[in-house]
Amino acid sequence: xxxxxxxxxxxxxxxxxxxxxxxxxxxxxxxxxxxxxxxxxxxxxxxxxxxxxxxxxxxxxxxxxxxxxxxxxxxxxxxxxxxxxxxxxxxxxxxxxxxxxxxxxxxxxxxxxxxxxxxxxxxxxxxxxxx
Length: 131
Hints:
Layout: H1 9-16, E1 23-27, E2 39-41, H2 51-59, E3 64-70, H3 73-76, H4 78-87, E4 92-96, H5 98-104, E5 111-113, E6 122-127
Parallel strand pairs: 1-5, 2-5, 3-4
Antiparallel strand pairs: 1-6, 3-6
């Protein structure tokens, strides 16, 4: 049995297959996922699992060098922005319009849908290297 913290087989497989500068998306229950993008749906009910819990779990296995967030998170969900910054204090953040973030999901290896029900709780993680 796997010893590390990501025990979801689909998430683990996606992370294992990622290389430097590849993208992985995580988001709220309402984020539209482009056709052709792999969707890993973890949503069970409202706010379960939460966006931040899923992000914490993924960060135990994925080296992240940069993140992409919607500009709108600054004013519409500053609490979530603070939580993200606390998890990754030294990671570069690029803010883009929410409409662009939605389109960029087509470039991700997968999108992990959570049960999160707060606006703009969406992120694209850009993988780094561990050496």
